[in-house]
Structure formats: C-alpha cells, structure tokens
Amino acid sequence: MTEARVARRAFVGLGSNLGDPRRQVERAFDELAALASTHLVARSPSYRSAPWGVTEQPAFVNAVAELDTYLPPRELLQALLAIERRYGRVRDGTRWGPRTLDLDLLACGDLRIDEPGLVLPHPQIARRAFVLVPLAQVAPDFVVAGAGRVRDLLAAVDASEVVRLD
C-alpha cells in the first residue's frame, strides 16, 4: 500500500544580490507558483538587506513565499535547487557568498528533519532578520518547530538593516 501524500504549509526564503536581484526574486515567485503539486499561498514584499556572513559583497534582495505543497520535503528541496540552477546558481561549497538566486526551504509544517542535505526548520531561521522580517509579513503567528512563533523570533533580533523596497 502506498502512503498518501499530505499537503503541508511550507516557507521558502528567496534571495539574490547579482545581476538584477529584484527581477530575479520576482521571477522566482512565478517559478514557485508553477511547481507541480504546489500552490503559492502568499508572497512577502521584497526587502534590501546587508550581506550576512561574508560582508564584502552587494546588498541582497530578500523575500519569503508561503506554499501549500503535496511534495515531500526532499522533493520540494530538489525542485528549489533546480530553479536555482536555471538562474545560474552554482553550489560549489562556498558559504554566504554572492548569488544570482538563493532559495532556502525554511520550514515545512511542524516537521523536524536532520538529514544530510536537508535540515528543517532551517537551522539559522531564528537568527536571520532578513528571513524573519518577510516571514512575519506572511505568517507572523507561524510556530517554527523548536524555535517559537515568528513574531516573537523577530522581536528578538536587530532588524534595523532590513529595508522594505517599494
């Protein structure tokens, strides 16, 4: 007997700081909306934020997408990586560097997963204002498994360098 697929609420962080970052983030929302077995529920506004980790690079444009998806987390992650590759993203092991498009699977319902290549919720979600600010726009009351409610997590970080773009 095959296991029935269950729809889950998932959140994806979008970021870009190479090429035309605002356009790439906008186009990535369209790509997410077109994913099989997935519905784009909400999209945050875009924000400009300072680079995190490696600071000697251009500012980022960040946003968050809220999805309902029947894809299992690993399949959803593979779909996100495929979108990144279409935008010229090369994952060569360099962390926190400049990128044409970054799609991070932030959370998938209340799942907690710690496997090679897939950790949910995202291990840095509670520390990153550039994720929490747009996430709070679409789901302020979402409870990040093991971390807390988004609005409370946001209140605990310095979000002064995350600026909404018109």
UniProtKB/TrEMBL annotation:
Belongs to the HPPK family. The keyword ATP-binding applies. PANTHER family: 2-AMINO-4-HYDROXY-6-HYDROXYMETHYLDIHYDROPTERIDINE PYROPHOSPHOKINASE. GO terms for biological process: folic acid biosynthetic process; tetrahydrofolate biosynthetic process. Pathway: Cofactor biosynthesis; tetrahydrofolate biosynthesis; 2-amino-4-hydroxy-6-hydroxymethyl-7,8-dihydropteridine diphosphate from 7,8-dihydroneopterin triphosphate: step 4/4. It holds the Pfam family HPPK. It comes from the Bacteria. Its EC number is 2.7.6.3. One of its GO terms (molecular function) is 2-amino-4-hydroxy-6-hydroxymethyldihydropteridine diphosphokinase activity. SUPFAM superfamilies: 6-hydroxymethyl-7,8-dihydropterin pyrophosphokinase, HPPK (SSF55083). Catalyzes the transfer of pyrophosphate from adenosine triphosphate (ATP) to 6-hydroxymethyl-7,8-dihydropterin, an enzymatic step in folate biosynthesis pathway. It comes from Dokdonella fugitiva. Transmembrane segments: none annotated. Residues 95-106 form the 7,8-dihydro-6-hydroxymethylpterin-pyrophosphokinase domain. Keywords: ATP-binding, Folate biosynthesis, Kinase, Nucleotide-binding, Transferase. This is 2-amino-4-hydroxy-6-hydroxymethyldihydropteridine pyrophosphokinase.
